[in-house]
Amino acid sequence: MEPSIWRDPFTWGILVCLGILAVLGIVAGFAQAQEHEHGVDGLPDWYDPTCCNQRDCRPVPDSDIEFSTLPGGGIVARYKPTGNIFTQDRFKLSQDERYHVCIWNGTSLCFYDRSGV
Fold this sequence. Notes:
alpha+beta, 4-stranded mixed sheet
């Protein structure tokens, strides 16, 4: 009767090492996916480069945004803490179901709307 490879301690050592490497690979892949979604300093990396190029944008609480309808039918969003107004031509679609404002030196650059208005 030939010896079984499953009884060999060397085989078990190799299998354990392969299992550990597989788990580490899965964890590393998840960490990279999280980094891609949130970018530098925990901020998203999907901001439009023509708007702020990964600067001057940040997520804000829903309660900080107030929408108004203009007499001509357009929509504006006001960021309450600073009073910045974003006209509809500055709206972009948020990719994470949160509102985001992009303000540089007091100027309203872009507003990421979670509803895709």
